Amino acid sequence: MARIAGVDLPENKRVDIGLTYLYGIGRSNVRLVLNETRVDPKKKILDLTEGEINKIQKALEQFTVEGDLHQEVNQNIKRLEEIGSYRGLRHRKNLPVRGQRTRSNARTKRGKRKTIGAMKKIDRAKVEGPKTDA
Q1: Closest Cα to residue 32, out of 54, 60, 51, 9?
Q2: What is the pLDDT of residues 45-61, one digit of tens each?
Q3: Which of 34, 40, 87, 114 has the fewest Cβ atoms within 10 angstroms?
Q4: How far is CA 37 from CA 33, 40, 68, 71, 75, in A?
Q5: How far apart are CA 34 and CA 55, in angstroms?
Q6: 127 and 82, same structural domain?
């Protein structure tokens, strides 16, 4: 199994797809790396030689990937929160940052709906439980 930048790449995938499993490497960066190293993109990761893997690792050093990139992104978010910018406040409140509407959407960011206000009589009885007369 090929291990690049601390990530085990899937052996049955093509090289041009398998390299995108690295955080921070997309299809366009993969194309640049493979052109630089002259590795056939149609080749499976399983069929790569040690020399080709070393060439790919050397070419990937010019990119910020995996742990370093995660750390950089988190530092940027932390900086926005510390200076009190609008984007930082949105991050802190766990709301969409880039201007999306929140009245009807943004469920993945805001979580499961919480019913507020009027309830049907049957639903209220289920929540409150059985009445006891004393």
Answers
A1: 60
A2: 999 999 999 999 999 99
A3: 114
A4: 6, 9, 23, 28, 32
A5: 9
A6: yes
pLDDT at 73: 95
126 with 101, same domain?
Answer: yes
| Percentage of residues of the chain with pLDDT beyond 90 | 63
Residue-number span of the structural domain to which 21 is assigned = 3-62
CA angle 79, 83, 85 (to 5 degrees): 100
Residue 96 near residue 102 (C-beta atoms within 8 A): yes
User: Which pLDDT tens digit goes with each residue over 93-117?
Assistant: 999 999 898 888 888 888 888 877 7
